[in-house]
């Protein structure tokens, strides 16, 4: 996720909270502080407010609402309508036009024209191109891919994922585009990597490296049990933020997630879960953590509990 897209996401979350009927005076003050952080913050919120104003007109007719039995509702009908429409209009996943795509919950194996073998995790999208000069290029828009690149010293295999650049001639590695970070885990051989600032680094088999907000970090020993767990049908988390956990979870189910407060975003998760049972992970989160999960059509709202 780019910095601009992340700001838009945060702006949407502020509007969902402030229109939920739960927002306190402190929440309104915190939103104003967020708005004044920078001109980019103010622009993102203004765009969200303009779209929200348009969506606010899409409500049930008054006669229908009045005819409904009166009961206490935690989330007003206009909020549910607006939240769902916002997601439909703004959260069209990147790479919807890509050459290769998987749906949420789908794991797909692909063999490219050059003989390279790929395994795509759920909700992954990428372009593949081999030009007349033999250059081999992949653009990863979202998701996670295990690459087994066919050896060809003359024609390097280049991958772009966010601000990450990965260049190999033949080896095996895993690329995980997760929010505003990219994670590379090298199983075999070696990989040459760089970022938008021109920093370069060689990463060897048994190492992993991350790009955070586009900046290349230092190599670390490979934690294969966690980084490659999806290939064995598992999700493994070790003290990971709840935002990252839900990023992983959305590869297995289509429901979109919106956080309503910062406290919920910072909660940590540790555990091992089955990849094909996302509901078990949701139950574990709500049981073990002080969070409230509110289900709307196509949307999961996450807030601190108490």
TrEMBL record:
GO terms for molecular function: sigma factor antagonist activity. Residues 99-192 form the FecR protein domain. InterPro entries: FecR, FecR_N, Ferrdict_sens_TM. Gene3D superfamilies: 2.60.120.1440, 3.55.50.30. Residues 10-51 form the FecR N-terminal domain. It holds the Pfam family DUF4880. This is FecR family protein.
